[in-house]
């Protein structure tokens, strides 16, 4: 039992550390759009360590990693950023989250090539982010 | 990643220190201590303070028994938001059910599997 | 010997436990249990479709499962001796109270023994939890109705 837990923890550590590296990455959008995303996110730079934004058709998924000590106000940060994003991209359906799970899932989106699979994944992520408790 | 484990460790530990203070300094029985912690969890959620704590500390806030009071209140408030006053009663176990049902279930399974060692 | 004299004598006889050491032990034990919980939470988030918000429920259930194994094999008692409140405050302590009561009273039968005694210790926690949650939620709902505070 202990050994298995240790192995699982080690796997998670390795997998977790690979993700965020203090950068903002935007994919799937036009150049001016990605600049805009970065601009919006930069304003809150001190509380956010890294961010990923993905444009998929009419959807815009934005995930941010909040600095551990700022996580107290995670809900507030999410709310503020969602409002800003919606203002900046009125045509897109914005889904913004600071959740680790959703961060991982969105980070993986780039690897998917097929259109339907991508779309399905986006729907799953959106429904996940809406789930309460 | 490492930071979240550390934060969970420290916050969870601090809850237990509060418990130990109630044991040793206030000379309360374990039952009283746990009741006080559960009630304080419920009150904290009433002020909307417990959810940010969970966001901050993860398991460090969900594992101590205070989260039990929090999730009871949270379920009640969620339902009250939708259905008004009746929701206060109906929504209470909506969120908490996992802890209690797990404890009942595993308690019963344990009584089937294990034998008491202290008594013949 | 009257009651006062007895309590005085009791205080003299019982060995003084250093408070700092006890707090330290409780902090360590509780902290380790919560760190393990964090690991379990990451496990559920990584391999299943749980978010940070929803992973709490299966984590609590898993921790109680671990408590069942430890209680069944008689190891939880030792943790409790070392950790004091550190083992009682996390949900594993709540689980241990219910599970050990269930195991202990099995000889009295499943309905009256296990079913009846399971909530002997844990019942008060549930009762006070539910009642306080009711009062808090009621007050807050009324305050919201009158527009004093928002949700």
Order of helices and strands of chain B: HHHHHHH
Judged by helices, strands and strand pairing, the structural class of chain C is: mainly alpha
Main sheet of chain C, how many strands, which sense, barrel?
Answer: none
Report Rg of chain C.
21 Å
Q: Secondary-structure element order of chain C, as H and E?
A: HHHHHHHH
Q: Alpha-carbon distance between the termini of chain B?
A: 48 Å
Oligomer: heterotrimer
Characterize the biggest β-sheet of chain B: none
Write down how many β-strands of chain B occur, each being a DSSP E stretch of 2 or more residues.
0
> What is the overall shape of chain C?
extended
Q: How many domains, in number, for the residues of chain B? A: 1
How confident overall, as mean pLDDT of chain C? Answer: 90
Mean pLDDT of chain B: 89
Write down the Rg of chain B: 17 Å
Strand content of chain C: under 5%
Largest interface: B-C, 80 and 78 residues
Q: Helix/strand-derived class of chain B?
A: mainly alpha
Strand and helix layout:
The complex is a heterotrimer of chains A (133), B (120) and C (151).
Chain A: H1 2-17, E1 24-27, H2 31-42, E2 48-56, E3 59-66, H3 74-88, E4 93-97, H4 100-108, H5 115-130
Parallel strand pairs in A: 1-2, 3-4
Antiparallel strand pairs in A: 2-3
Helix pairs in contact in A: 2-3
Chain B: H1 2-24, H2 30-46, H3 50-57, H4 59-62, H5 66-83, H6 86-90, H7 92-113
Helix pairs in contact in B: 2-5, 5-7
Chain C: H1 3-13, H2 19-47, H3 56-72, H4 76-83, H5 85-88, H6 91-104, H7 110-117, H8 119-145
Helix pairs in contact in C: 2-3, 3-6, 6-7, 6-8
Q: Can you offer a commentary on this structure?
A:
The complex is a heterotrimer of chains A (133), B (120) and C (151). Chain A has a single domain, classed as K homology (KH) domain (GMP Synthetase, Chain A, domain 3, 2-Layer Sandwich), CATH 3.30.300. Chain A has a 4-stranded mixed sheet, with helices on both faces. In chain A, helix 2 packs antiparallel against helix 3. Chain A has 5 helices and 4 strands. With 133 residues, chain A is of the alpha/beta class. Chain B has one domain (2-113). Helices cover 81% and strands 0% of the residues of chain B. Chain B has 7 helices and no strands. Chain B has helices at residues 2-24, 30-46, 50-57, 59-62, 66-83, 86-90, 92-113. Chain B is globular. Chain C has 151 residues and is mostly helical. Chain C contains 8 helices and no strands. Chain C starts with a helix and ends in a 6-residue tail after the last helix. Chains in contact: A-B, A-C, B-C. At the B-C interface, helix 1, helix 2, helix 4, helix 5 and helix 6 of B face helix 2, helix 3, helix 5, helix 6 and helix 8 of C.
């Amino acid at each position: 039992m202990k050994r298995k837990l240790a192995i699982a923890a080690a796997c998670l550590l390795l997998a977790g550390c690979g993700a965020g590296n203090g950068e903002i990455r935007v994919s799937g959008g036009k150049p001016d759009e990605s600049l805009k995303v970065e601009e919006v996110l930069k304003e809150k730079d001190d509380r956010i360590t890294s961010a990923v934004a993905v444009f998929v058709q009419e959807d815009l998924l934005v995930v941010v990693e909040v600095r551990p000590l700022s996580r107290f106000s995670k809900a507030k940060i999410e709310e503020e950023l969602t409002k800003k994003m919606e203002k900046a991209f009125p045509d897109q359906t914005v889904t913004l989250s600071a959740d680790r799970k959703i961060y991982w899932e969105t980070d993986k989106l780039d690897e998917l090539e097929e259109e339907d699979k991508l779309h399905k994944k986006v729907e799953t992520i959106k429904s996940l982010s809406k789930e309460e408790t | 990643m490492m930071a979240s484990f550390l934060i969970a460790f420290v916050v969870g530990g601090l809850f237990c220190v509060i418990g130990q203070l109630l044991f040793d300094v206030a000379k309360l029985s374990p039952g009283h201590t746990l009741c006080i912690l559960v009630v304080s969890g419920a009150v904290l959620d009433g002020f909307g303070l417990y959810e940010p704590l969970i966001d901050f500390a993860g398991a460090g806030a969900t594992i101590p028994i205070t989260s039990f009071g929090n999730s009871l209140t949270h379920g009640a408030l969620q339902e009250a938001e939708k259905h008004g006053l009746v929701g206060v009663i109906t929504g209470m176990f909506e969120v908490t059910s996992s802890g209690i049902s797990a404890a009942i279930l595993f308690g019963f399974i344990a009584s089937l599997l294990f034998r008491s060692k202290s008594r013949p | 010997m009257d009651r006062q004299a007895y309590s005085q004598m009791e205080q003299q006889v019982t060995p003084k436990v250093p408070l700092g050491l006890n707090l330290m032990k409780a902090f360590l034990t509780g902290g380790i249990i919560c760190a393990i919980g964090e690991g379990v939470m990451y496990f559920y988030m990584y391999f299943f479709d749980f978010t940070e918000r929803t992973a709490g429920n299966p984590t609590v259930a898993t921790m109680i499962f671990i408590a069942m194994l430890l209680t069944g094999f008689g190891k939880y008692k030792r943790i409790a001796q070392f950790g004091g409140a550190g083992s009682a405050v996390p949900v594993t302590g709540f689980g241990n109270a219910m599970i050990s009561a269930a195991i202990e009273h099995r000889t009295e039968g499943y309905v009256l023994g296990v079913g009846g005694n399971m909530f002997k210790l844990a019942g008060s926690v549930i009762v006070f939890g539910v009642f306080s949650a009711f009062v808090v939620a009621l007050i807050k709902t009324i305050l919201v109705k009158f527009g004093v505070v928002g949700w």
